[in-house]
Amino acid sequence: MIRFWDVLERAENGKILAEKDWDRMIGEVAAQVVSDYDIKYDPEDPVPTDDSLADRLFEAGVELFEKTGIYCIDTGKVLKFTKDEIMEALEGAPERAVYGSGNDVVEMPHREVEDPRDPVVNFSAVGTPVTEELFVPICQSYAQEPIADTFSGPLITTYRGMPVTSGSPVEMEAGIWNVIKLREAARLAGRPTIPIHNFMSIAERTDATIAAARPELGALAGDGLFVAAIAELKVDYERLKKVSFLINSPYVIGGLYGPLMGGYGGGPAATAALLVAHHILGVISFRAQRHNAFPIHIHNICNTSRDMIWLISITGQALARNTHLVTVANAFMASGPCTETIIWELAAHSVAATVSGWHLNPCAVAKNRHPLHCSGMEPRMHAEVGHVTARGGTTRKEAGRIVKALLERYEKHISNPPIGKSFTECYDPVSIKPKDEYILLWEDSKKSLEDLGLKFKLL
Amino acid sequence: MSIAKLCHAVETGSKKEAEDIARDLLNQNINIQETADQLTSTMQKIGDRFARLEIFLPGMMESAQTMTLAMNILGSKILESTSKGEYASKKAGKVVLGTVKGDLHEIGKNIVKLMLEANNFEVKDLGYDVDSMQFIKEAEAVGADFIAASSLMTTTMPHQKEIIDLLKDRDLRDKYKVVIGGAPTSQEWADRIGADLYCPDAGSSSKLMAALLQRK
């Protein structure tokens, strides 16, 4: 069994390779394996039902990882692993992640394809920039949702009027503030010990994370942290230092993987193989207990386009059928809050991910670049769709029909989506309740989704 | 052997074929201006195909490398034609490009580089984790028109502002057009820090930058 020490040793002693040669090799190997295993994207089949395609994709991803390994940027070395080591690592990987303690324990088991159990939903304002003043109200809007199993926060780009710059003392101060304020939001939401699945969203550096990782600040045992791979299949010492800290901590380790569709890997099929390979990277080098995937379309900066839905669905199936990993799909929306388009995007992503074996991590909104454009309503809608999809025993075939109908409604807007409304336009900032306009929009949209076959009475 | 065949070799990323054709063309009485124009047009088409994701980054990289190989072989002919006044390089502008300090993400920046080069910009690529002063020193050294800084993390975005602040400190602000981009950046951020241009995606960078230069 590969140990973390083996990873560190190989990062020091692996074969040296120029980074540009690594980038080039990724595309070549990905193209080769998708050809060898006959993995083809079919735009007419966004939620594939072909088990053998999923199994071939898994094999392709394993072979890709075996051929490439992991690139360590700091040493310029390639960490290689044999197929036996890969399979042994997958076999030994955790089959459940457990967040929280006491009355707030959240178990995330491995999910199967077409699993009728509810997906666990991690409510996240993934990376949306907000102000210091609205950080707590926005976090509260997530944590207060009864359907939220865990939550995490957005980020601030200035703290006390100073920019939060990577590596600066301000970053460390802001990181500590981040943890204090997340737990404050949980208390204000009436859920003081709700697990925070990623308690550091503001600071990037490991020293700032360690400084903030204290229970008296609000980072409780059973909360979690993410460690993000660098696209494609790269790590650096900053990340490995974070792993070193986490494996000696009471926090759940989440791996975070965002291959770029259209980037070095290539198209949807090659990027799907690359995403499988990223999960192996997470098992081996991050010791991840749960795995978050956020493949992104290189031009659209979202993962709700037709090709991305296919990629997410088939990769989820490949991992669900061939491993016992705990996998979670991060939803990245093109549209912004309080728009009809975002509802169709959220629903399509949730339906496809849920039937394909993923848990849910909603959601980045408005391409993640518009300040204050996020609220607890978006993950609520995503979670409700995920729950009724699972509880209704939705098959992949039915999911495919629903997703195609939804794509018809929004895919023409993906490249130029509506950015929607800001938090204070969507919510009363005092009561932290969504405004009637948003509630009515969702209620009306639910009727339309019910017509497509989603049964909200199952909630 | 013809220019059309060379363009086809560039399109398909057939390096050996492109080199053979380029060597053969050297011995013919070709119009180097026409050859360069057609190759540039080919790369623009490839860039457009990438923007529509009809091809992916590896394909565009192969074409760009193939074009570079061909142009290297044709280099002596270009020099000769330039000295005779038969060929004038139509460089759209000089760009110093990099990902800012503390940031290791460079896929987007690399695509911007390919798109700019495909559209006749001369690009000095500084890589990633580039110190703000380094952008300025390189811009001064090469006589750049643009300083283009990419950031993929909110904690490194302040370095885009730092570049502009350092230019102001040195009374160099008006000398360069500062272009920013990267997933967490926005027009609002560009306005706030006083950047000259925000590029929302790699595909639009060359057109937006060319238009900005024309307004100079």
TrEMBL record, chain B:
Leader peptide range in chain numbering: none
InterPro entries: Cbl-bd_cap, Cobalamin-bd, Cobalamin-bd_sf, Met_Synthase/Corrinoid, Meth_synthase_dom
GO molecular function, one term: methionine synthase activity
Metal-binding keyword on record: yes
Keyword line: Cobalt, Metal-binding
Family classification: Belongs to the methylamine corrinoid protein family.
Keyword presence, Metal-binding: yes
A Pfam family of this chain: B12-binding
GO BP terms in the entry: homocysteine metabolic process; tetrahydrofolate metabolic process
Any GO CC annotation of this UniProt entry: cytosol
Protein name, entry field: B12-binding domain-containing protein
Domain annotation B12-binding N-terminal: ranges: 1-86
SMART domains: B12-binding_2
UniProt organism field: marine sediment metagenome
Domain B12-binding: 92-216
